[in-house]
């Protein structure tokens, strides 16, 4: 992809749980399981490297494991929005009550809501 043509496409990527868990038995993996902040940020950084892009137009959060609180999830996702790494947030494979809880938190704290 040419750098000056990036604005001509909509780039979407997704994050799912367990980034690189069990990929190497020698690595400490306590922070890589589930859908926590560390796993999210490492996964998104790897996606940007693979896509050769500095940002994504839309980041889907895929697979809600319910071990990570709505507050932590929305804080982590919004950190990416504030850093201009992600423009819009989406979610898939999550119960409606969870999406509502996430968006309620975002609204109450002046953060970007899940829009897709």
From TrEMBL:
Q: Which UniProt keywords apply?
A: NADP, Oxidoreductase
One Gene Ontology MF term? oxidoreductase activity
What is an example of a Pfam family matching this protein? Aldo_ket_red
| Matching InterPro entries | AKR_Detox_Biosynth, NAD(P)_OxRdtase_dom_sf, NADP_OxRdtase_dom
**Start and end of every NADP-dependent oxidoreductase domain?**
5-102
Q: Which PANTHER family match?
A: NADH-SPECIFIC METHYLGLYOXAL REDUCTASE-RELATED, NADP-DEPENDENT OXIDOREDUCTASE DOMAIN-CONTAINING PROTEIN-RELATED
Q: Which family does it belong to?
A: Belongs to the aldo/keto reductase family. Aldo/keto reductase 2 subfamily.
Name this polypeptide is given: Putative norsolorinic acid reductase
Protein species of origin: Diaporthe ampelina
For this protein's source organism, the top of the classification is: Eukaryota, Fungi, Dikarya, Ascomycota, Pezizomycotina
